[in-house]
Amino acid sequence: MTAVTAPSDALRRLLDLLASGASTEQLAHVVVAARAEGALDPADLAALASAGELALRIREKLAEHRRREAQLTALFETASELAALSDPDTVLRSIVRRARALLGVDVSYLSLNNEAEGKTYIRVSDGSVSAEFQQIVLGMGEGLGGLVAQTARPYATSDYFNDDRFKHTRPIDSGVEDEGLTAILGVPLAIGPKVLGVLFASDRAAREFSAGEVALLSSLADHAAIALDSANLLDQTRRAVAELNEANATMERAEDAHDRLTDLVLSGGDLPDVADAVADVLHGDLTVYDADGTLLASSSAPVVLDPAPFDQDVLAAARTTGRAVSTKDNWVCAVQAGPELLGSLVLTGRAGLTDPDRRLFERAGVVTALLLMLRRSVVRAEDEVRGELLTDLLTAPGRNPRALLARGRRLGIDLSAPHAVLVAHADGGSRRRLASAAARHATLVGVHAEEVVLLAAGDPDELARRAAADLGSATGRPVTVGAAGPASGPSAIAEAHAEAARCVRALLALGRTGEGAAMTGLGFLGQLLGDRADLDAFVRRTLGPVLDYDERRGTELVATLRAYFANGSQLARTKDVLHVHVNTVVQRLERVATLLGEDWQAPDRALEIQLALRLHRLGGPR
């Protein structure tokens, strides 16, 4: 270094070093060297020292200007980057990354306010390693961040845990401690008076944040708030457009579904067609039930269909509100016409329904109600026609038999074919409802003389027993059914009806309410009451096994029975009449029990057997 021989030399050297961007140490060394050389007098040396201090201040100013220029450049770059971003999450991540880089801190993070809850949540962070810290929730006024969010003013601390300006809470302090933070700076993200959240810069060591750093982070927060607000608006606009497009698509689908259902009704479609159409639109399975829970139609073949797979309280709720109700496994909609419940719809395979789909499901309930009302009108009209035919058939069968046969054919009934005639009786209840329940058992059904009359194909006795059981179950009350036939043609059917009516009266008189039988099932009473008594059939049905045994073995079981009953069922007198040992009588009667059953001596059976024995004797060998 050149020796200083004059003050001008020292000043020139200071200026050269300052112009070349020399360090602080190099500038200070000029004064130190001049003082060591001793070439300057004290006044010049003092002037040189003053000039050196000025050079140091100039250097600091230049460095500050360069730093501010770099920060402004970084802010402009940040603003440009944020302006190009449209996704809110991407904007948030970019903000915290820039904040950490610009201030050279260990951790930067950002919280967003929830005005409804009065809290601020940490949304994104950069440099954080603590899961507990990232999940911190700050109430308004709690901790440094809560205070910034509440007051919309920046706050900084060089030692958070020893700073009593902030309201410390255990969850907040625990998270900050787990992250290892000491110095924290927080500035508000605000649009006008509205605070969106807080932007933080923090270090794990003690650090004083300068006013310039506070201003820098605040400027970044201002840019970030604008970018975040713009991104949120853009995101809301996109969602609104998407919702509008979805609404248009939903409206088109609803219009299409409405047109399909309308076309089904106008073209004569029935419940299965509605079930298939609605199931196709709603992408599920639809079943239709009547008011009693009986399956009417289904779009598929579920394993369990009857009864309806839901609690009646659910249907009551749907009926009261007029809206579809969700259960654990399905959706239920009441089908009703005014206050009258007609049935229900059950939609399965859809865990949730949007409002448009729910309204479509409810619209299907209205269409189903319309179809059920139309079906009811048709059924009533058919019932009137069938009822008139049945009345004419039973009251005036000989007036015009050909016309009756022709009317039956128009209804799909061949009255010339053999038919069993059944009469169903139930105390109380609606005769029309009983007739409706009996329709599944009959070719023709109606109400005549205050009783329900059925024409059906099959064995009368078997049909009567089955109808009594089924109708009793369907109506919830005992139903007694008498049967007669088979009968072919109007006159024979009318006669069979009269016999079936007597059979019902006999069942009721015998205390067999709720049972079903034909005259043949009433034993000898049937023979006495019936118009077409078949005595041979009665004898064979009562004594057939014994008669066959005597014929095959040459035994005298029938004679033994006559003697036994004729002598008051006394073994001693019976063996004297037959001239056999008492053991022989016992053995013969044991054989009878084997052939006729152990209850052959019960009063009712004994009476029938004695009557059959007398008829057998009157008629000779059979």
Quick tags:
622 residues; alpha+beta; six-stranded antiparallel β-sheet; five-stranded antiparallel β-sheet; 57% helix; 16% strand
Question: What does the model show?
Answer:
The chain is α+β, with helices and mostly antiparallel strands and 622 residues long. The protein is 57% helix and 16% strand. The chain has 21 helices and 16 strands. The chain has helices spanning 7-19, 24-37, 42-84, 88-103, 131-134, 143-151, 170-179, 211-266, 271-282, 312-321, 355-395, 401-410, 431-438, 460-475, 490-509, 524-529, 535-553, 557-566, 571-578, 582-596, 603-619, and strands spanning 107-114, 119-126, 137-139, 155-157, 183-191, 194-203, 285-290, 295-298, 325-326, 330-337, 340-348, 419-425, 444-448, 451-456, 480-487, 516-518. The strands form three sheets. It has a six-stranded antiparallel sheet. A five-stranded antiparallel sheet has the order 8-7-11-10-9. It has a five-stranded mixed sheet with strand order 13-14-12-15-16. Strand 1 (107-114) and strand 2 (119-126) form a beta hairpin. The N and C termini lie far apart (158 Å). The model has no long low-confidence stretch (mean pLDDT 76).
Walk me through the topology.
Layout: H1 7-19, H2 24-37, H3 42-84, H4 88-103, E1 107-114, E2 119-126, H5 131-134, E3 137-139, H6 143-151, E4 155-157, H7 170-179, E5 183-191, E6 194-203, H8 211-266, H9 271-282, E7 285-290, E8 295-298, H10 312-321, E9 325-326, E10 330-337, E11 340-348, H11 355-395, H12 401-410, E12 419-425, H13 431-438, E13 444-448, E14 451-456, H14 460-475, E15 480-487, H15 490-509, E16 516-518, H16 524-529, H17 535-553, H18 557-566, H19 571-578, H20 582-596, H21 603-619
Parallel strand pairs: 15-16
Antiparallel strand pairs: 1-2, 1-6, 2-3, 4-5, 5-6, 7-8, 7-11, 9-10, 10-11, 12-14, 12-15, 13-14
